[in-house]
């Protein structure tokens, strides 16, 4: 890869194809179009608006209700809108479905190589910017194009393809069972803190070849990295060290796991490349799959449209997963792509070196392809949740397997699971790129732990550890000798749920 990819200017748009006035997000805004929410004090950003009055995606109003913000931007600007980010740095937000695909699928015009960003070249991105973790160029596939990208992606794709689907589901079942054992006797839980936030990382550590005992510590470390906690740097160092020693061990004695397959791939990845890509995989998997599982669970437990459809017997758990990937994709926006030369998209003139954010959530809601957003998508997989083009997510089937097997296990173990707070009391831990439910309090009839064993291989996550707080008094009865799910007390299964769940799980 070169530092400055060849500039390939796009076709100069016909003058009437370009919306006027055209704010130039990098060099300052032109006069606002009438009714533009970016300039409306009551708009999405209100008094939080940036000095030049463009919508700031980091403003509390935008973060609190990103979908409403995207719709106001779409109404005012069409499929591509000028926005501001942290420190009032300008960018384009791609809102149209087709425009998102155009940007994602045309690397000659829109590169992943962030080193061409005008704001980097002009030294306008502060060293403390929250944009840096996602935009600062690193030698990993996310920032590669062309042959360099093809080489690493073929190693990643081939290694992921070797994973045995049944093996993935077995790991998910095992870890989901252990997590459920941590709270099943109590009759109440926060499913996000005690189940959802742990499952993806525990499963991924197995798939990449780490021992059981590394799982819980990596869950905490990766959460701290994502939250920007005071210990984020140390946690990141811990993740890298853990992966470095894994790669050294697997190079000496390969096993049946992602680390060994990446190391042994004919493309000849160096140890550093393997470590860096395993890290990308762990961090991406954890946040995104956590978000996906939490949203699907909320939908299963609360959405009347979904439950009504269930009663009609049409929607499966897999349908619910795809519906969430349409309506609440884990990555709301994705930074990004950078224009390799002056070009045009969605009627906007884009300058060489401008940053474009893929608006995955906005694109999924584009009325041009989804005039009725309330219509169920029934398993349709053409959403943008996994991106598009050469960088489209290679792990999508893994995350689907973790989500639907994990939820299947949960509903089977706790069949009368129900929310213990009103839906409007739920809130999200908000971020401009990804977000997930902060908590999902539920109640159910207590059941005995089914799988918890003593000894070194239990891997069971004690409640205090899982929730990060003090353990509540478990009302778990004695474990039955045969280790099977406890027969008593049987959950009181009432109402729609048992029949609905049977249909939900039908494939
Ligand atoms: C619900 C879960 C997930 C979501 C929503 C998701 C979404 C995405 C998106 C939007 C991208 C960027 C695509 C682009 O730039 O056009 C991406 C890239 C990537 N994802 Fe995922 N992902 C998920 C799970 C996973 C899992 C489980 C793995 C690993 C096994 C994984 C590995 C990767 C990698 C390595 C990349 C970089 C690919 C590249 O740049 O070529 N993801 N993912």
How would you characterize the overall build of this protein?
- The protein is globular and about 65 Å long.
- Strands 1-2-8-5-3 form a five-stranded mixed beta sheet.
- The protein has helices at residues 60-64, 66-77, 97-105, 118-121, 132-135, 146-161, 165-181, 191-196, 199-208, 214-227, 232-252, 258-263, 271-302, 304-312, 317-327, 360-364, 396-413, 463-467, 497-505, and strands spanning 80-84, 90-94, 110-111, 188-190, 334-339, 343-345, 348-350, 355-358, 418-419, 428-429, 436-437, 441-443.
- Helix 9 runs antiparallel to helix 13 (271-302).
- 42% of the residues lie in helices and 8% in strands.
- It contains 19 helices and twelve strands.
- It is of the alpha+beta class and 507 residues long.
- It folds into two domains: 1-137 and 332-384, 2-Layer Sandwich (Uridine Diphospho-n-acetylenolpyruvylglucosamine Reductase, domain 2); 148-326 and 386-506, Cytochrome p450, CATH 1.10.630.
- It starts with 59 loop residues before the first helix and ends with a helix.
- Bound molecules: protoporphyrin IX containing FE.
- Protoporphyrin IX containing FE is lined by residues 104, 141-142, 153, 156, 160, 280-281, 284-285, 288-289, 292, 330-331, 334, 385-389, 391-395, 398-399.
State the CATH topology of the largest domain. Answer: Cytochrome p450
**Oligomeric state:** single chain
| Main sheet strand line-up | 1-2-8-5-3
Uncertain regions spanning at least 5 consecutive residues: 1-51, 452-507
Bound molecules: protoporphyrin IX containing FE
Largest sheet: 5 strands, mixed
Helix-strand makeup class: alpha+beta
**CATH-wise, what's the superfamily of the largest domain?**
Cytochrome P450
Mean pLDDT: 80
Our Rg estimate from Cα atoms comes to 24 Å
Number of helix segments? 19
Count of folded domains: 2
Quick one: CATH class of the largest domain? Mainly Alpha
Helix content: 40-55%
Give the overall form. globular
Strand segment count: 12
CATH architect. name of the largest domain: Orthogonal Bundle
Q: Alpha-carbon distance between the termini?
A: 45 Å
Proportion of residues in β-strands = 5-15%
């Amino acid at each position: 890869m070169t530092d400055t990819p060849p500039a390939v200017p796009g076709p100069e748009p016909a003058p009437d194809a370009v919306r006027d006035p055209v704010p130039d997000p990098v060099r300052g805004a032109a006069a606002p179009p009438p009714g533009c929410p970016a300039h409306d004090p009551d708009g999405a950003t209100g008094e939080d608006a940036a000095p030049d009055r463009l919508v700031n995606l980091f403003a509390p109003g935008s973060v609190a209700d990103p979908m409403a913000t995207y719709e106001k931007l779409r109404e005012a600007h069409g499929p591509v809108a000028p926005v501001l980010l942290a420190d009032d740095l300008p960018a384009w937000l791609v809102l149209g479905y087709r425009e998102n695909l155009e940007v994602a699928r045309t690397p000659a015009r829109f590169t992943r190589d962030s080193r061409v960003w005008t704001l980097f070249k002009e030294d306008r991105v502060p060293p403390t910017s929250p944009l840096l973790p996602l935009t600062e160029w690193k030698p990993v596939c996310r920032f590669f194009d062309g042959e360099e990208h093809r080489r690493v992606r073929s190693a990643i794709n081939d290694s992921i393809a070797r994973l045995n689907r049944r093996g993935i589901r077995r790991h998910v079942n095992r870890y989901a069972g252990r997590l459920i054992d941590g709270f099943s006797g109590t009759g109440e839980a926060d499913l996000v803190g005690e189940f959802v936030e742990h499952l993806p990382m525990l499963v991924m550590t197995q798939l990449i070849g780490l021992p059981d005992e590394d799982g819980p510590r990596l869950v905490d470390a990766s959460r701290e990295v994502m939250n920007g906690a005071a210990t984020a740097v140390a946690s990141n160092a811990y993740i890298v060290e853990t992966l470095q020693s894994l790669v050294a061990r697997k190079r000496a004695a390969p096993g049946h796991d992602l680390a060994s397959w990446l190391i042994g791939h004919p493309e000849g990845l160096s140890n550093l490349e393997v470590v860096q890509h395993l890290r990308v995989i762990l961090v991406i998997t954890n946040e995104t799959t956590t978000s996906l599982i939490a949203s699907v669970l909320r939908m299963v437990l609360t959405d009347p449209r979904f439950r009504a459809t269930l009663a009609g017997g049409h929607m499966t758990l897999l349908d619910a997963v795809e519906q969430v990937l349409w309506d609440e994709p884990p990555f709301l926006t994705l930074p990004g792509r950078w224009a390799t030369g002056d070009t045009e998209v969605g009627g906007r003139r884009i300058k060489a070196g401008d940053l474009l954010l893929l608006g995955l959530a906005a694109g999924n809601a584009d009325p041009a392809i989804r005039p009725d957003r309330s219509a169920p998508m029934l398993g349709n997989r053409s959403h943008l949740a996994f991106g598009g083009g050469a960088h489209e997510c290679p792990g999508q089937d893994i995350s689907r397997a973790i989500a639907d097997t994990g939820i299947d296990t949960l509903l089977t173990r706790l069949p009368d699971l129900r929310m213990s707070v009103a839906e409007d009391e739920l809130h999200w831990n908000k971020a401009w790129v990804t977000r997930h439910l902060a908590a999902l309090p539920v109640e159910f009839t207590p059941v005995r732990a089914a799988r918890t064993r003593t000894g070194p291989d239990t891997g069971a996550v004690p409640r205090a550890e899982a929730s990060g707080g003090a353990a509540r008094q478990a009302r778990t009865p004695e474990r039955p000798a045969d280790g099977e799910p406890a027969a008593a007390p049987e959950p009181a299964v009432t109402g729609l749920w048992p029949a609905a769940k049977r249909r939900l799980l039908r494939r």
